[in-house]
Amino acid sequence: MRSHRKELWFETAERVAFVNITPDVDAALAASGIREGLCLVNAMHISASVFINDDERGLHRDFTTWLEQLVPYDRSRWQHNRTGEDNADSHLKRQIMGREVVIAVTCGRLDFGPWEQVFYGEFDGRRRKRVLVKIIGE
Amino acid sequence: MRSHRKELWFETAERVAFVNITPDVDAALAASGIREGLCLVNAMHISASVFINDDERGLHRDFTTWLEQLVPYDRSRWQHNRTGEDNADSHLKRQIMGREVVIAVTCGRLDFGPWEQVFYGEFDGRRRKRVLVKIIGE
Amino acid sequence: MRSHRKELWFETAERVAFVNITPDVDAALAASGIREGLCLVNAMHISASVFINDDERGLHRDFTTWLEQLVPYDRSRWQHNRTGEDNADSHLKRQIMGREVVIAVTCGRLDFGPWEQVFYGEFDGRRRKRVLVKIIGE
User: C36 vs A5, A38, A56, A123, B102, CA distance in Å?
Assistant: First the structure.
């Protein structure tokens, strides 16, 4: 069994942002030389997500608006913010969008359906944060 | 390390539907001959889910009603639908229900608790779509 | 390839509770002897979750309040409860919080970002329930 590890770094200009990281995951897989296995991609921070969906700008605006309705930023609403933080909403938004994806690796490629793209979802940006890619297989 | 890949195909009669695919995943595992490892089951389409919950019809109706309240179909509400699509709600519903499950394989069986069943969750049906089963192990 | 399996048991005093199980997952990894691979941690019950977030009491109260708003206990509201159950809300809450996490194993350790902690999320407690840890690698 072989394994490969790669960190990706991000610093988004906006508090909430979605970044297509499919090319980065593809590059990590190519560097690994692994042909058959599983590829884990996860946010290393608890106010961010990794998820798979469509690379369409309108949909990303829908995500942003909808998440804000379900979990308003509202600094005074959340008990977590009494610790001096203001990002309670980010921790909750990330639960809806998910921490990680696991992708099949087949014949040396990410084994995707026709529209699957991997995104980094940032809910408390404007600082440096990381995503982990870990691939195991042969 | 061994690996096994199987595609499952679906075309549901309703726009929203839940299909118990546990027998299909069991069959893929039996065909693989793998005794210890991990089994990934994921929707290959971004308006569908794979998840684990209870095989109870009332609960599935609760899922349908509740998801519609959280994410109404409402064609004019979502920016994604300005592309000519009408399925923005499906992309959001799938984020709540999840893209994938990873199941432990122990002694050649899906290592499940007493009520765990695997479902395909369809949120934009009436056309052919796929689920991927990828098993790695020994 | 090596594999290791460990069950963790819980019986929470409250109906809804969050338990930090990071030390238990660490111990399972140490017992496995695995240095590079993947670690799956999943609830074996369909009214409970395993997720990764912050170990901060105020945030956990925010989770509890917010989940209750999104999915009220309300015994008469859900069709699943007509079966004689009263835990339909627990099945839905677990979909938001997730069934499982997959954690990279690197150099014999859980490969975590600075604040990542693993939690058992209970939504229908006061009885014995299980979490499965399955680690594969070398």
Answer: 10, 13, 36, 30, 18
Of C56, C63, C96, the CB nearest to A83: C56
Count of A-C CB contacts under 8 Å:
90
B91-120 mean pLDDT: 98
> For B4-22, b where at least 16 C-beta lie within 10 A, e where not — what string?
bbbebebebeeebbbbebb
Among C130, C138, C124, CA closest to C24: C130
Asked if the ipTM is above 0.90, the reply is: yes
**Nearest Cβ partner for A80 among C62, C101, C103:** C62
Report how far Cα B30 is from the mean position of its chain's Cα atoms: 20
| Single-letter amino acid code for the residue at A39 | C
Chains that touch B (3 or more CB pairs under 8 A): A, C
Distance from CA of C81 to the nearest CA of A (A): 25
Number of Cα atoms under 13 Å in the Cβ half of residue C84: 0
Q: Which residues, 6 or more positions from B20, have their beta carbon under 8 angstroms from its beta carbon?
A: B55, B117, B118, B119
**B100, containing H or E segment:** strand B100-106
B132 touches chain C (CB under 8 A): no
Render pLDDT for A36-64 as a digit per residue (tens, 0 to 9).
999 999 999 999 999 999 999 999 999 99
Summarize pLDDT for B31-86 with one digit per residue, the tens.
999 999 999 999 999 999 999 999 999 999 999 999 999 999 999 999 999 999 99
pLDDT for B81: 97
The predicted pLDDT at position C78 comes to 98
Predicted confidence band at B108 (pLDDT cuts at 50, 70, 90)?
very high
**pTM over the 0.80 mark:** yes
Residue in B7, B8, B41, B46 to test binding to A, most A beta-carbons within 10 Å: B46
Residue with token string 């079966």: C83
Is A27 in CB contact (< 8 Å) with chain B?
A: no
Q: Which residue of A has its CA nearest to B133?
A: A104
Interface of A with B in 67-106 (CB under 8 A): 70, 96-98, 101-104, 106
CA distance B67 to B108: 35
For residue C96, how many C-alpha atoms fall within 13 Å in the half-sphere facing its CB?
Answer: 24
